[in-house]
Design a protein that fits this description.
Blueprint lengths: L4 E5 L2 H13 L4 E5 L4 H8 L3 H17 L4 E4 L2 H6 L2 H8 L2 E3 L1 H8 L5 E6 L2 H14 L4 E6 L1 H8 L4 H7 L2 H10 L5 E4 L7 H5 L6 E2 L2 H8 L2
Parallel strand pairs: 1-2, 1-3, 3-4, 5-6, 5-7, 7-8
Helix pairs in contact: 6-7, 6-12
Length: 215
C-alpha cells in the first residue's frame, strides 16, 4: 500500500486538483481542503499569523496520525499567506509548496509574467522569484474572478474569452516576457484553452513540485 501524501489547498476544488495531480504521477493524495469556498479561504489568509499556523498545524498533525509523512501544498495564495518552513520543522514532515518550484524556475529565465488569484499569492511568488534571481524582470496581475469562474465550472474556452486572458498574454509578450507563470493551482484548468490563443509559453509549477516531493 502506498504511503499517503497530505494534499492541502484553499478549497475543495483545488484540493481535488492536487489529489488528481499526484494520482497522475502514481502517488496517493489525502484530500484536506482548508476552507469550503474561495471567499472563506480569502478571509483565512488575512487572519492573524497565529490563527493560520494553529489551523494548518492541526490539519498536518491530523494527517500524520493517518500515516502521512509528506505534504503537498497545492495552493499558491495559501503558500504565500502561511510560512510552511517552521511548520515543517515542528512536524518533521517533508512539505512542498509552489514557492519551492518557483525558486528553481527563476534561474532559468530573464523575464517572467505572473497571473495569480490574489495579492496574497502574488506577493509570495514575487518575493520567491526575486530572492532566487535578483536580476529577473517581472510583470504581474491577479484576479479572484478567475478562481470563481473555475469553481463555477465555466467552460475553459469561454473563461479565457470572458476574462480576456489572450489579451493579457499578448500584452505580457509584447512587453518582452519570456513566459507566463500560472500562479494559482486552479489555473491549469484553462491552460490548454489559453495555449491555443497565445504563443507565450505557459508555466505550471505542478511537475516541478512533484519532483521536489520525491527528492
Amino acid at each position: 500500500m502506498k504511503e499517503p501524501i497530505a494534499v492541502l489547498a484553499g478549497t475543495p476544488v483545488d484540493t481535488r486538483m492536487g489529489v488528481d495531480c499526484l494520482r497522475d504521477h502514481g502517488l496517493e493524495g489525502m484530500f484536506l481542503p482548508v476552507s469550503p469556498s474561495p471567499q472563506e479561504q480569502m478571509f483565512f489568509q488575512i487572519s492573524s499569523r497565529e490563527e493560520k499556523n494553529q489551523e494548518i498545524l492541526r490539519i498536518l498533525r491530523g494527517a500524520m496520525d493517518q500515516g502521512c509523512k509528506k505534504a503537498f501544498i497545492y495552493c499558491n495564495s495559501l503558500s504565500g499567506a502561511v510560512d510552511f518552513t517552521p511548520l515543517a520543522e515542528q512536524t518533521g514532515m517533508h512539505i512542498v509548496t509552489p514557492l519551492h518550484a518557483y525558486a528553481r524556475l527563476a534561474s532559468q529565465h530573464q523575464s517572467l509574467a505572473v497571473v495569480a488569484a490574489n495579492a496574497q499569492g502574488l506577493s509570495g511568488i514575487e518575493r520567491t522569484l526575486l530572492h532566487a534571481n535578483h536580476d529577473l524582470k517581472l510583470m504581474c496581475a491577479s484576479g479572484m474572478g478567475l478562481v470563481l469562474s473555475i469553481e463555477a465550472e465555466m467552460d475553459p474556452d469561454a473563461l479565457v474569452q470572458h476574462h480576456h486572458l489572450d489579451q493579457l498574454a499578448s500584452w505580457f509578450q509584447n512587453c518582452g516576457m519570456d513566459a507566463l507563470i500560472l500562479g494559482c493551482t486552479h489555473f491549469p484548468y484553462f491552460k490548454e484553452a489559453l495555449s491555443r490563443r497565445t504563443t507565450l509559453p505557459l508555466i505550471d509549477p505542478a511537475d516541478e513540485m512533484v519532483r521536489l516531493l520525491n527528492e
